[in-house]
Design a protein that fits this description.
Shape: globular
Strand order of the largest sheet: 10-12-11-13-14-19-18-17-15-16
Number of helices: 10
Radius of gyration: 20 Å
CATH topology of the largest domain: Rossmann fold
Order of helices and strands: EEEHEEEEHEHEHEHEHEHEHEHEEEEEH
Largest sheet: 10 strands, mixed
CATH architecture of the largest domain: 3-Layer(aba) Sandwich
Helix content: 10-25%
Distance between the termini: 59 Å
CATH class of the largest domain: Alpha Beta
Amino acid sequence: MKGILALEDGKVFYGEAFGATGERYGEICFNTSMTGYQEILTDPSYKGQIVAMTYPHIGNYGINAEDFESANIHLEGFVVRELSTMFSNWRAQQTLEQFLAERGVIGLSEVDTRALTRHIRSRGAMKAAISTETLDADELVKKARRSPGLIGRDLVKEVTCPEAYHWDEHVPAPWRREYPISERRFHVVVYDFGVKYNILRSLRNLGCDLTVVPAHTTAREVLELKPDGILLSNGPGDPAGVPYAMEAVQELMGVKPMFGICLGHQILGLAFGGHTYKLKFGHRGSNQPVKHFATGHVEITCQNHGFAVDADSLNDDIEITHLNLNDHTVEGMRHKKLPIFSVQYHPEASAGPHDARYLFEEFVRMMEQA
């Protein structure tokens, strides 16, 4: 079955479709991870995006029940160079192709992903369409141009939970061996902007009792839950598209210890009075070098974001704690007077390096001190 990927600048890529049939629209981006495609597919932060993998062989180890980062696939399309139709892994239960077909997501293989990646790096991320139905290139390019972009769009409302819930999922054996579950000590309210399961696992394993709340939850409703700390999760799209989240965070600043991750970090930047801006092609992969100023160490980090906080827009109360060594964008910050800190990258990894696990422990220490 043939498929086509059309970019708004007129560039077109043809390939072999797999998974579901149909037509979807999103911003085209690329991820440089060699593994972790299941976690990427189920990461809610990819809502509104068509993801191309730069590593050429995808699907080799199949899909299993333990590596989900949310209950569903959230991205709009998946592009690979070579699809493995067989898998070899003791935990695998189905092929990648079966997984996409089951979840209604279009995949496209036999695409020159190297050429696609170089094009995005040169021209920047842009609107795109992926289709097994419209195979007229000019028509699909027009559809891509008419599709909604990411700037100013609220994608969080499409991935957040409908109502608050208590998280106490059984931690899979591999995690239990590595992280013995601590006795419950602190109650953390997690704002679900598109939270990944491994953030919740990481906190639970450090003894936190977790209540996950929808993105539109007010500050008053959060405080009624009597939390010891508040976590602002990752999520998709433009932080400027969720002003209600920024307003709630402003009311909660200084009341309880607060930790922001990815979109949560950007929302904090806005709440601090700063600004965010769109990156040319974003940071997506598990090999981004970040310098931690407090220690002088370089951490290799897992990242997935297309926007960043403007360091020059932050006031003197905010200290930059981490910096991306590739492009010198802000990767971490903290308030000098209030118990608030955040990082742009993903300390929970999954998949990715584990250099930044200490940040969850730092959040727990902050609650201990409070």
